[in-house]
Amino acid sequence: MLTAEEIKHFIGEDSSSEKKRRAKRGMRYYEGEHKIMGSRLFYVDADGNVKEDFLRSNIKISHPFFTELVDQQVQYMLSGEEDFIKSDIPELQGRLQAYFDDAFWSEVYETLTGCIAKGFDYMYAYQTVDDRIGFQWADSIGVVEVRAKDTDDKTEYVIFWYVDRVEKGKKEIKRIRVWDKKQVYYYVQEGDGDIMEDGEAELNPRPHIVSNENGERFGSSFGFIPFFRLDNGSKQTSGLKPIKELIDDYDLMACSLSNNLQDFTDAIYVVSGFQGADLDEMIQNIRTKKHLGVAPDGGLDIKTVDIPYEARKAKLELDEKNIYRFGMGFNSAQLGDGNITNVVIKSRYALLDLKCNKLEIRLKEFLRKIIRVVLDEINRKEGTDYQMKDVYFNFQREVMTNAQDNAQIGLLDAQKQGQLLDNLLKVSNIIDDETVIQEICSILDIDYDAVVARFPVNEEKEAAHTEKELDGIVPDDGGGTDEQTAA
Question: Does residue 242 have a cis bond before it (omega within 30 degrees)?
């Protein structure tokens, strides 16, 4: 088992790793904390010293494109039917719905969001109050996988820490849990102090599963560390990587334009031959009296500054287009020529579909690991033998459509059905009734057996059909009656 010193070492080493730095940066941008928030302005004084400029405008506005792209992808992947995990076995389907309910999919939503924003995220299994297995999201920033060797793919321990509360506005109280293949150890840390055993834990260490039978407690384990990781690609790359610089450039262009408008709202007055006492008097005359007294050879010239608005606007539009292009998202602000057909709408979803298809493969692999654990518990409790082949996924994404286009397509389909029925009725006099009914049911998508069951029974036809079947089963050897043949 890991010692308190080893746990503290692993947490500190993991927090400073490049992998976690990238994950934290992705989460900051998802929360709207962009690079522009740390922007500072400087100037060089008369002595050549660099000093920070606190007089010029320094507007800091983040434009959360990444937040929209992440939420857009998550919502699109989890759109469609509510039951994404299905089975054709009614009994199994009912049991699966008890595990994969709205609470489970809300945890999947958080995991998907973290996976896209940070590059990877986790869910872990635990025992619910209903004495069955449940699953919960675990923030990857606080998850540390401990291996015997750096080159070893086998995880021996998983450390999961989170900030429980902040005391007196400064001191963080961390809850730390350490999983192995059999049990969980509970620890607590105040600020940067020593890691101590958590006295609030009822059992420490605690088995993965605690069962109550006849007033007695029994402990058991999953047989593995119950953490499941969802990766955004093999390199666990945040969706921020290809568009971070574009977002930073957009923030800079937009904020620079705001600064220019703020700094150059007033005109510059160039005065020569002023007949007043000092500069303050001149400024007061301009603001209040709107006139000045100048010498015969003096004058007043008003200067204005032209802000490069069109150039900045073009750059902002180009950055926005590239953010959605390389971020592979759907730009809802994109303008068209007014002819928005279903084909045009699907084409605008093409990049988002490509991105979701890549992640869907990993999501299914991630869910299969969870389903195996659920099936094992169902088989153990119910005495069944359900297999993974009895379960399948039903991810059907919803795309907005043009209602007028849909109505036109429906009208064409109805006209096609009508034409097929007309053609069939024209040749019905040379085709038997049974074939005509079968073709009509096929065109109208009606159950043929259900239609035939409503027809009255033709007794003569039924008797002839029965006699024909008996002729094929009982051979007729021409030897008279059954009694004579037996004799």
Answer: no
